[in-house]
Amino acid sequence: MNDFRVREAVPGDAPGYIRLMKAILRENPPVGTPYAADEFDPAPGAMAERIEDYPLTGNSLFLVALAGERGEQVIGSLTCRGGSLRSDRHVAELGVYVAREWRNQGVGAALIQRALAWGTEQPIITRIELEVLAGNDRALRLYERCGFVREGVRRRACQRGGIAEDMILMGWLKEES
Ligand SMILES: CC(C)(COP(=O)(O)OP(=O)(O)OC[C@H]1O[C@@H](n2cnc3c(N)ncnc32)[C@H](O)[C@@H]1OP(=O)(O)O)[C@@H](O)C(=O)NCCC(=O)NCCS
What we know:
Elements: E1 5-8, H1 14-25, H2 44-56, E2 61-67, E3 73-82, E4 91-98, H3 107-121, E5 127-133, H4 137-145, E6 149-160, E7 163-173
Parallel strand pairs: 4-5
Antiparallel strand pairs: 1-2, 2-3, 3-4, 5-7, 6-7
Coenzyme A binds near residues 106, 139, 142 and 145.
């Protein structure tokens, strides 16, 4: 098995993170993400500031998975963005991406397990939620294996290539973990 490690992102990861996301969004056929390739084009400086802001919110987490000869290539990412209102500060929205050549090797599971450990320890967060395209079997399987529960369907919520696909809403509750 190939070696990788997971750690919290630092501003210097911005260019590698942008490269990862652009490669994923350019995949053909498209992978299970609602973003189109031209809808993700942040400036590295702006992304570095965003990464820096995550821990400052007190209820958000930005992880990267790293590999390569010098262990510096960003091969996966996970964001948990906590709500900003008093009514939803306990909720974080999760997004996870792994480079194509690294899929099915446990990187996604390692990122999610680290995020759930954070959610378990974290004093504010009690719920982590996500949305996934109904046809994204690999992601659905992974989320269920990690303890996320299917909570509902947003029917025809995602328009891609002229087809409107359903999205599944899933949630993890600290009290059930
Ligand atoms: C979804 C994603 C994050 C998962 O990461 P990963 O590193 O491949 O995940 P893991 O290797 O930890 O686990 C994958 C699981 O899916 C299973 N799997 C693989 N292909 C599958 C398929 N076609 N149908 C069902 N399950 C599948 C694997 O067997 C594995 O489960 P197991 O360990 O119980 O056997 C990654 O594939 C990815 O980035 N995909 C493109 C972007 C995306 O879809 N992001 C999620 C948006 S909601």
